[in-house]
Task: inverse folding
């Protein structure tokens, strides 16, 4: 139990505490207009000590990580705390406190969702000339692709981050194909419908569906149009990637 | 007469649902009494009625579809997804999804009882299963409760809070019972909260101890964080059930990612005890030793994969060993008595390290940390392996992992000196899936069976048996039996959707069953 007591003492001092009962399911729903008003309250009364993003400073704690704010509903915890805590403005009206909670909950919800970017990051950090050189040379891209052919205007069609993703992990315009040769019967070539260790099925050029049970006497040759792209993942440097994306982005 | 009736009733019902604690110390045969079948985490069964010579005759014995109303995540349209490993005791199977537990006849799949927890919320991402002690069944609920049920009739005996929903914790882990301790883990990584593991009294639910996944302030390990504030908000969730060595009286589990998850610039250092394999005394919660597979992780590579226990020789001397195939793509073998590092190897090729340091820990390549303009990293966030349990066969000496060679780009979105939450993520990617058979003595890949097609990783656990079979789910919808010596497929059955849990096996009245969960359905196979 010593460890438990120590840990609880430490968390009371420095951060989250584990309380006995789970809270209600519904979190406080953020009212955007109230949050905007609350932002003004925060800027006027709180920002100097708790920081621009409410993440705390050397003089005041983080409010995003605050159990009190997490537990608060429309000022239920914050209102009494402002009156109780030294150096806080006890004169805020109940409406101001409520607005402040909407602002803080808005910041909190944004933090909990920030695995998605608020704005796309800038991925155009490479050198277009070097990207072009790689495209036409070491990267081998020009063997199959053309800046004036299939990739003409690609920089116009996609946002830079999507361009980077599509370059690295293209979605094939062409399906995976296979040629299946049974011991008795002609080879059949077509688009793979499904393949596993036990069966393969494909659709031939006329739309006819074919299926086989796989075995030692069935030859299966796979033609994956993206095979070279997959292999290139082993060879790209991050600088190659940034240069090529910068180059592709110029193909307007 | 009345007394006789009471005694008879007690024997009847007690006998039906009673778990003899000694079963937990034996290799499973007529039962599968805990998440991994036994405490070792090997998911190896000594049963061999189903074996290489007759597996062709393995066929469907029963099917049970789970239909529930209400919120469930991951299945779409509120559909149930069975991610937990069922347990089997005295011919009764107990299985769970978030907020629900069932007892069904392990011979037929027929429902005996159903319990539904009145949920207050929490993330319904999945439930890994139940634990049993004598005639009580335990499972965790998304809204942070440990619930104890009467195994005979499914009536609630008690429940107790194990985490705080307000702080964005939730609960999904299968409890493990060690003597009279019910060990519970916690989940959640939206906000910067500390992970921990608890012991509750099996009779009362009372909290016995709690161990946080961070050091105590002032200790040498605390210097692996830039500040106490960062450390106390540093994550390290305990997503996967523990294994246990009764002889050493040590339990073993892994801890999850540090917080903030991707943006690590505000938590310089290795960030103990996140991303660590932990050995604790289950009676006191006292730390015995730790080993950290992913120092200063910034890729969400929870090191929570089952620490598997087995014995072997190292340098000509018998050793009690522990192995983990970690989500970061590396395989570790340790001495489980002391934590001494034995070996480290890659079990799939990765691109994020600068080799291995003197402690046996991979050295993070700074160039492969998340960047504002992206860094191409392998494995991806899903990892070279994820939570689905691996298997170890003492017959082959091989450690089996349903693995993936996966790529994605990691982006840093929050460049603030003090980021919070995630502050970045990975995106898209390409992956190949395969079963890797790792020689536990050398760390080398003995064989690799690539699942055909370019799909995501196969999210099924594995089961090996003395019948010379390794059961797995592929990336399509097949349950497959491989030859554990070479990976050759020997048998399969096509299901309606890919496997979503770890296969189990048990023998009742001379019939050996193999049971898998796929989406909302349990499939049982047997030779009739």
Result:
């Amino acid at each position: 139990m010593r460890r438990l007591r120590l840990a609880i003492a430490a968390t009371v001092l420095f951060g989250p505490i584990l309380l006995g009962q789970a809270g209600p399911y519904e979190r406080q729903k953020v009212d955007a207009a109230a949050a905007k008003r609350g932002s003004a309250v925060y800027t006027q009364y709180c920002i100097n000590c708790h920081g621009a993003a409410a993440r705390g400073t050397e003089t005041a704690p983080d409010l995003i990580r605050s159990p009190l704010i997490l537990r608060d509903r429309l000022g239920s915890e914050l209102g009494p705390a402002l009156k109780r805590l030294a150096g806080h403005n006890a004169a805020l009206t109940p409406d101001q406190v409520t607005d402040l909670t909407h602002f803080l909950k808005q910041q909190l919800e944004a933090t909990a969702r920030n695995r998605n970017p608020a704005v796309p990051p800038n991925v155009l950090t490479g050198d277009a000339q070097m990207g072009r050189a790689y495209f036409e040379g070491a990267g081998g891209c020009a063997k199959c692709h053309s800046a004036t052919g299939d990739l003409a205007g690609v920089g116009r069609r996609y946002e830079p981050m999507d361009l980077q993703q599509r370059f690295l992990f293209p979605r094939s315009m062409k399906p995976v194909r296979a040629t299946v040769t049974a011991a008795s019967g002609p080879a059949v070539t077509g688009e793979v419908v499904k393949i596993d260790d036990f069966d393969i099925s494909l659709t031939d050029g006329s739309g006819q569906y074919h299926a086989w049970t796989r075995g030692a006497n069935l030859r299966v040759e796979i033609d994956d149009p993206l095979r070279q792209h997959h292999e290139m993942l082993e060879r790209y440097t991050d600088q190659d990637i940034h240069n090529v994306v910068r180059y592709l982005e110029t193909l307007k | 007469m009345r007394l006789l009736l009471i005694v008879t009733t007690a024997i009847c019902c007690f006998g039906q649902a009673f778990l003899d604690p000694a079963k937990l110390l034996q290799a499973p045969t007529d039962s599968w009494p805990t998440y991994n079948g036994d405490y070792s985490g090997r998911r190896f069964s000594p049963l061999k009625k189903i074996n290489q010579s007759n597996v062709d005759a393995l066929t469907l014995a029963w099917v049970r579809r789970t239909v529930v109303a209400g919120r469930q995540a991951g299945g779409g349209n509120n559909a149930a997804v069975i991610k937990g490993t069922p347990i089997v005791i005295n011919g009764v199977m107990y299985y769970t999804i978030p907020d629900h537990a069932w007892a069904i006849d392990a011979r037929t799949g027929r429902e005996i009882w159903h319990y539904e927890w009145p949920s207050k919320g929490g993330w319904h991402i999945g439930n890994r299963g139940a634990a049993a002690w004598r005639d009580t069944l335990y499972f965790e609920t998304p809204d942070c409760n440990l619930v104890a049920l009467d195994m005979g009739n499914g009536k609630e005996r008690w429940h107790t809070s194990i985490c705080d929903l307000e702080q964005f914790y939730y609960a999904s882990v299968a409890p493990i019972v060690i003597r009279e301790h019910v060990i519970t883990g916690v989940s959640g990584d939206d906000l910067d909260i500390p992970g921990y593991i608890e012991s509750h009294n099996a009779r009362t639910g009372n909290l016995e101890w709690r161990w946080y996944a961070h050091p105590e302030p002032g200790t040498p390990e605390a210097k692996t964080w830039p500040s106490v504030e960062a450390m106390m908000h540093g994550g390290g969730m305990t997503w996967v059930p523990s294994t246990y060595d009764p002889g050493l009286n040590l339990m073993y589990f892994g801890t999850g990612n540090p917080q903030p998850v991707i943006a690590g610039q505000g938590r310089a250092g290795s960030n103990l005890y996140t991303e660590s394999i932990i050995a604790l005394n289950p009676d006191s919660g006292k730390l015995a030793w730790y080993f950290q597979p992913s120092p200063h992780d910034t890729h969400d590579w929870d090191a929570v994969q089952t620490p598997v226990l087995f014995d072997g020789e190292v340098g000509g001397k018998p050793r009690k060993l522990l192995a983990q195939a970690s989500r970061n793509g590396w395989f570790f073998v340790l001495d489980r008595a002391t934590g001494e590092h034995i070996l480290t190897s890659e079990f799939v090729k990765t691109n994020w390290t600068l080799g291995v340091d003197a402690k046996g820990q991979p050295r993070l390549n700074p160039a492969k940390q998340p960047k504002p303009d992206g860094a191409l990293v392998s494995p991806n966030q899903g990892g070279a392996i994820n939570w689905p349990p691996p298997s170890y066969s003492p017959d082959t000496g091989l450690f089996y992992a349903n693995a993936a060679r996966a790529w994605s780009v990691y982006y840093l979105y929050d460049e603030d000196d003090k980021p919070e939450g995630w502050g970045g993520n990975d995106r898209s990617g390409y992956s190949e899936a395969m079963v890797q058979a790792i020689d536990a003595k050398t760390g080398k890949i003995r064989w690799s069976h690539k699942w055909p097609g370019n799909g995501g990783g196969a999210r099924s656990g594995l089961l090996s048996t003395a019948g010379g079979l390794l059961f797995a789910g592929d990336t399509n919808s097949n349950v497959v039996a491989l030859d554990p010596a070479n990976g050759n497929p020997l048998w399969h059955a096509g299901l309606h959707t890919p496997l979503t849990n770890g296969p189990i096996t048990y023998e009742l009245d001379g019939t050996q069953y193999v049971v898998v969960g796929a989406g909302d359905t349990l499939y049982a196979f047997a030779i009739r």
The first strand of chain B starts at residue 44 and ends at 45.
